[in-house]
Amino acid sequence: MDSTRDLLIALARRYAFADLGALAPTAEISDVCEFGQRLLSLDAEDFAAEARSVPADLRRLARACHMPQTPREQPRGALESLKPAYALLLEVIAARWHRRELSPMIAAVHIASEYLPLLAFEPQLGHAGDPTSWPAGLSAPGSRFGVIGDRECDHTKSEQSATNRTLRVSVEPAEGWRAYFDRQHSQVAGALGVCVATCRNPCTAMDWIDPEPRADLQVRARTALTFAETPLVRLRHAAPVGHGFGVPSPEEVLDAWERSRTALDKNAVGAAAVKDDDFPLPGLPALFSAVAGAPIEPSTLIAGVSDHVVTLLRRT
Asked: Do residue 27 and residue 115 come from a single domain?
């Protein structure tokens, strides 16, 4: 019996929630493992799903990363602030690295790159890109934001479609809201970054931000856009989660990150990436913090789930 329990505890310590859930001796442990697996898989739609066997403090932390499934759902979770979600992303990236699950790790890095411009915008918006709370200035006279077919706008056709949709999705039914987040919200994040940082024909869309904070945002948003083009993020296209069939080795990941740090080290924000720390990709937490303009450290949410499972196993 002790040897079986020791094996299950070892699985819990390795965050092998899917395997442990299938072997769990009780329904309570299985329920907690399902919760842990959702976190590890970044299944943000279901972070708020009922999980009575999970301690309330862990459920509360997960709900802060949850993406609302209707326009009026409360609390707003990741639409209120992306900082808890990025803390979880960092924990997932580290966990996948230590488990040598490099394809899911690169997928998590890719997700982080897609929404990073919204993290940069959060101090100015007062939220994390909630379509129910966009500032009126985005649609001020002379703004091209959300105007489809305007050839003076630097947005791609898909970005124009996404920005047009985000200005009206808050009055759509729940199905339309979910479809928007599945397909277009990340494009809105990139489009906002273009507006403030790289647009060749600026319109009035960013005039609601005063010049001094806009200059700061410009640097943070440009760094976010640069991160999306780094060798590390491009590794996704060489992995099964992308468009190819190869899996990057640890050495390839670290080499890509070193080249990415060099590419990012062009301003005070990007220079944060060259910080040496004990994170598997040294400097990544510092980079996210610099883009956010606020400290972001890896969460301990998944570790907390693991500890709770171990406690339950020791009681059986």
From this structure: yes
